[in-house]
Amino acid sequence: MYPEDSMILRSPLIAVAAVAVLSLAAPASAANLLVNGGFEDTGTATLQGWGGYTYGTGYSLPLPGWIVNSGSVDIVTNQTQWSPSYEGNNALDINGFGPGSISQTFATIADQFYTVSYAYSRNAAGAQDPALAVITAPGANVVVSAANGNFGSPGNLTWQTASFTFKATGSSSTLSLSSTDAGSGGVFFDDISVSAAVPEPASWALMIGGFGLAGAILRRQRRTVAA
Fold this sequence. Notes:
alpha+beta, Jelly Rolls, six-stranded antiparallel β-sheet, five-stranded antiparallel β-sheet, 35% strand
């Protein structure tokens, strides 16, 4: 190690800049924190005659990755009127034999921001108009409205996408999806994900400034040692 390198490593300013850069870069991960967000895993449930799977508080078979808190929900497949899904072969109808509610708890870091993204449509076989559901997360209560005419027709579904951001309050957070409609048709969900939020442009500017500060200090200290 050169003498000037020892001085550089001891510089508190560079240490502060490095910490700032790392803390800003960490939230950029796009990994999905949810399990079975696309509802492709149906577990050991049996495909029913109408072309899907039903899960509920009165059923012994679980919906992989999720807890059914009330009522029942359906996983619908790419058959007859329930196609195409947004991605893969399956989608979720939040109304099974009636309004349902599901949730999933996942690891988070307190005070860090997370982005929830999802695709949604409407059960073309008898859902209310509009079909309504609510997505909740810490500090967030988002109403999802799927109006007739905007989401295709039986066998020719169309989808829309949306997202929102929430701030975690602890080492774990819970995401919930709940129907606010009666009946056996409701909002369809697919491709649900939760990921650490990407820093805002102002944060990126601060991070780049941290790199610039560290570089300037390095150059100045090397000149001082050389002199």
